[in-house]
Amino acid sequence: MTSSTPAGNKDIREVAISLDQVSKWYGSFQVLQNVNLNVRVGERIVIAGPSGSGKSTMIRCINWLEQHQSGRIVVDGIELTSNYRNVDAVRKEVGMVFQHFNLFPHLTILENCTLAPIWVKKQSKKDADAVAFEFLEKVRIADQAHKFPGQLSGGQQQRVAIARALCMRPKVLLFDEPTSALDPEMVREVLDTMVRLAEDGMTMLCVTHEMGFARQVADRVIFMDRGEILEENVPDEFFSKPRHERARAFLSQIIH
Amino acid sequence: MKYLLGAVDTVPLLLDGLVTTLLICGLASILALVGAVCIVAARRSGIGVVVWTAKVYVTLMRGLPIVILVFLLYFGVPALFDLGRVSALWVGVLALAMNGAAFQSEVLRGAIARLPNGQTEGAYALGLNKFQLWRLVLTPQVLPIALPALAGEIGFLIKASPVLSLITVVDLTRRAQQVTMQTFDPLGPLLAACFLYFLLIGSISWVSRYLETRLTVGRTR
Ligand SMILES: Nc1ncnc2c1ncn2[C@@H]1O[C@H](COP(=O)(O)OP(=O)(O)OP(=O)(O)O)[C@@H](O)[C@H]1O
Ligand SMILES: [Mg+2]
């Protein structure tokens, strides 16, 4: 565990995700450079950094949407290797919410939420429906259950995407810029949903530039640039007096 | 007027030809679709030789006049391998299927390319495997996109099928010629054949439009 974990008293919690010297290249271009990160159960981490710094690539390695080439990634005690059983096991524990929602347009909201529970977890349709309604209630969209994604607003679709991920009862949720494809007036409803998840104790890794959200819920902010983690800090300190000079440059840009 | 009546009268005489055309084109379309799926899978396999073979096959089939393919299969291949006489009907099915597979694979590829982004990673992130991804997520979206063009390809296949009368298959066109020779009516049987071809191709596009609306019901994009 890195010494920079701000809340030292939380260190007894078990490690949910650990990245150990993780590197990845696209051809000769190194996207991730010896990334080390430990996420404990219940921790909320915000990842920030300039465009192209490798934020998406890093979190996509955690559910094997991208493959790292050296180092170790262990999720809930399972190491990600090219062994498909491990990959499947990890994907059952890790949910992901994407910038563009990635809902299935040919399925209703309810069917979007029950597809994986039925086919991956082999739940009965009845059980899956019940779970789906529970989480659709939670994201406050149960009344739209029988509509298709194309009939909902962006903010509603993103909340459905969150519910869809929750229906698999993941131990960890990854968010990749969940609000950056939304019209400004819809950002709030999605962030509120995420705050409620955080309050419920969900382990979360969020790539986002929403500083209000980071201040409100994050235990730590991770700053990445050029494939490296340059700073890990508590949100207040990160935003008021970042230690790394590139983090300062980055913050001065996003504040304006 | 006389000719039109003559045409109506000859329709029953052509029915066995119609059945043969239906049989050949029906089987060939199904085989072509299976072949097209295999070609698409081959092109997506990421295995160099397999991808290359599939590409070459599609290029060849798209460039080769179907008459030549029919003759190659009916005369050339049996001579080469000393097979003796082969069934003209099955050669017909095979030729149309081989040709149709290439064209239909292009239709499928185009439809897959038009799918919204992120479907695959969305499905994988939920833990679906590759088979489930295709069965539950991609295919149901590809089909309505591909249907009109697939129906068009089947129409082409039907219109190409008279070529088989050159290798002794008594299809609708050949049957019309036979009736002409028996009745000395130069127009009636051909008009009747026209009518039946129109009916056939028209009903295919009708069915495809029906299926398309059924498959996309309720959803807006
Ligand atoms: N499939 C790929 N092939 C080659 N290069 C890629 C590929 N995917 C990403 N990259 C490159 O890797 C780098 C990191 O990309 P990544 O998407 O992880 O950045 P990011 O921090 O998420 O940026 P953004 O804020 O724009 O989303 C970028 O320079 C990008 O161009
Ligand atoms: Mg990104």
Question: How would you summarize what this structure contains?
Answer:
Chain A is an alpha/beta fold and 256 residues long. Chain A has helices spanning 55-62, 84-93, 109-119, 125-138, 154-166, 184-199, 211-217, 235-240, 245-255, and strands spanning 15-26, 29-40, 44-48, 70-75, 78-79, 94-97, 172-176, 203-207, 220-225, 228-233.
Please, could you describe this protein's structure?
- Chain B: It is a multi-pass membrane protein.
- Chain B: The chain crosses the membrane at residues 20-42, 63-81, 87-104, 145-170, 190-211.
- Chain B: Pfam families: BPD_transp_1 (PF00528).
- Chain B: Residues 18-208 form the ABC transmembrane type-1 domain.
- Chain B: It is found in: Cell inner membrane; Cell membrane.
- The complex is a heterodimer of chains A (256) and B (221).
- Residues 1-8 of chain A have low confidence and may be disordered.
- In chain A, strands 6-7-8-3-9-10 form a six-stranded mixed β-sheet, sandwiched between helices. Chain A has a four-stranded antiparallel β-sheet with strand order 2-1-4-5, with helices on one face.
- In chain A, helix 3 (109-119) runs parallel beside helix 5 and helix 5 (154-166) packs parallel to helix 6 (184-199).
- Chain A has nine helices and ten strands.
- Chain A starts with 14 loop residues before the first strand and ends with a helix.
- Chain A has 256 residues and is of the alpha/beta class.
- With 221 residues, chain B is mainly α.
- Chain B has a single domain (13-220), classed as Orthogonal Bundle (MetI-like fold), CATH 1.10.3720.
- Chain B is built from nine helices and no strands.
- Chain B has helices at residues 2-10, 15-44, 48-63, 66-81, 88-113, 119-125, 130-160, 172-183, 188-215.
- Chain B is flat, with a radius of gyration of 21 Å.
- Chain B starts with a helix and ends in a 6-residue tail after the last helix.
- The relative contact order of chain B is 0.16.
- The model of chain B has no long low-confidence stretch (mean pLDDT 91).
- Chain A binds chain B through residues 60, 63-65, 88, 91-92, 94-96, 98, 100-106, 108, 115-116, 119-120, 148, 150-151, 164-165, 168, and chain B through 116-119, 121-129, 132, 136-137, 140-141, 216, 218-221.
- The complex binds adenosine-5'-triphosphate and magnesium ion.
- Residues 26, 31, 49, 51-57 of chain A line the site of adenosine-5'-triphosphate.
